[in-house]
Design a protein that fits this description.
Elements: E1 3-11, E2 14-20, H1 27-38, E3 48-55, E4 58-65, H2 75-88, E5 97-101, E6 104-111, E7 114-118, E8 123-130, H3 131-140, H4 146-151, E9 156-161, E10 165-170, H5 181-188, E11 198-206, E12 209-216, E13 221-222, H6 227-241, E14 245-250, E15 253-259, H7 263-266, E16 277-281, E17 284-292
Parallel strand pairs: 2-3, 4-5, 10-11, 12-14
Antiparallel strand pairs: 1-2, 1-17, 3-4, 5-6, 6-7, 7-16, 8-9, 9-10, 11-12, 12-13, 14-15, 15-16
Length: about 290
């Protein structure tokens, strides 16, 4: 019987099973295997599975959500992939490691603050909506959650692609987020977002920090942390308060979003794609899992 060895990692509470890609698998096999091993009861309780394949100077990445669907990018998984690659792909690890994802090439490095990932350029998805226009769109799609409408406190919401699409909504009290799950699920599948969207709820703490939680596509629930969601939230607050370094606190841990030196010049206009943000946070190896295939 053949086996696959996975290493389980946590990035700010977001958990992943990572393995070296040595052979090609059928799509049906991948979906069944991923859903089985990610299951919180009968599997190993993970938010996603990542296969990595070393090719020349970069590492090709194949990422799957816990429901077996493919995802373009995952910021927390990228930090974990950096640690995995250091240990399993290099005798003398380089300072920087590049990963080829479906959303483009990202680059990892390690420093005093943790593992840093230079993300792909964040792109306009739908851009900014006024609060009024956003709520009108929801009403037209049949959403009538008055409690949710009363929580939205900002004059704008942001639809942006930080590797995957996110809708950032500022609410009055993030501690109530679990009661908003049904509405976030409806928004995630709203017709206005053809690819679907992750929904990231935020609450401002200061001009340079916020609380955030993401309802993720593919997991179909709130997660302890979401790297691309942290970046989307950071860009939202940076735009609002004209800051270039944002501290993001998610249920599973803290991250920092840094914006490069040219970011503030472009951040207040959607004439161009956003500059490449940098996501900084922890990455921890939990242990090894061997499965039969």
């Amino acid at each position: 019987m053949k086996t696959i060895e996975f290493v389980k990692y946590s990035g700010a509470g977001n958990t992943f099973l990572i393995a070296e890609k040595k052979i090609d698998f059928e799509r049906e096999f991948i979906q069944k295997t991923v859903t089985r091993i990610c299951d919180p009861v009968n599997g190993f309780s993970a938010d996603g599975v990542l296969w990595l394949e070393k090719k020349d100077s970069e590492i090709v990445w194949y990422f799957y959500n816990s429901d077996g669907s493919s995802a373009e990018m995952c910021g927390n998984a990228a930090r974990c992939a950096f640690l995995f690659s250091q240990q399993y792909f290099f005798k003398n690890p380089p300072e920087y490691i590049k990963f080829k994802t479906l959303s483009g090439v990202v680059q990892g490095s390690e420093g005093i603050e943790g593992v840093s990932i230079e993300m792909t350029r964040a792109k306009k998805e739908k851009g900014f909506f006024s609060k009024e226009d956003f709520l009108n769109v929801l009403l037209l799609e049949g959403f009538h959650d008055k409690e949710f409408f009363s929580y939205v406190c900002s004059n704008q919401v942001l639809s942006i692609d930080t590797g995957v699409p996110h809708l950032v909504i500022e609410i009055k009290d993030l501690s109530k987020y679990k009661s908003l799950k049904k509405t976030c699920e409806q928004i995630r599948n709203a017709k206005i977002f053809p690819r679907g969207t992750n929904v990231t709820l935020v609450q401002e703490k200061s001009v340079e920090s916020l609380l955030a939680v993401s309802f993720e596509r593919g997991v179909e629930d709130f997660t302890l942390a979401c790297g691309t969601g942290a970046v989307a939230a950071g860009i939202y607050l940076a735009h609002k308060n004209k800051k270039s370094k944002i501290h993001v606190q998610m249920p599973g841990g803290n991250m920092v979003v840094k914006l490069d030196s040219n970011f503030e010049k472009d951040i207040f206009s959607f004439q161009q794609d956003w500059q490449k943000p940098i996501l900084v946070g922890d990455a921890i190896k939990i242990g090894t899992v061997i499965i039969d295939i």
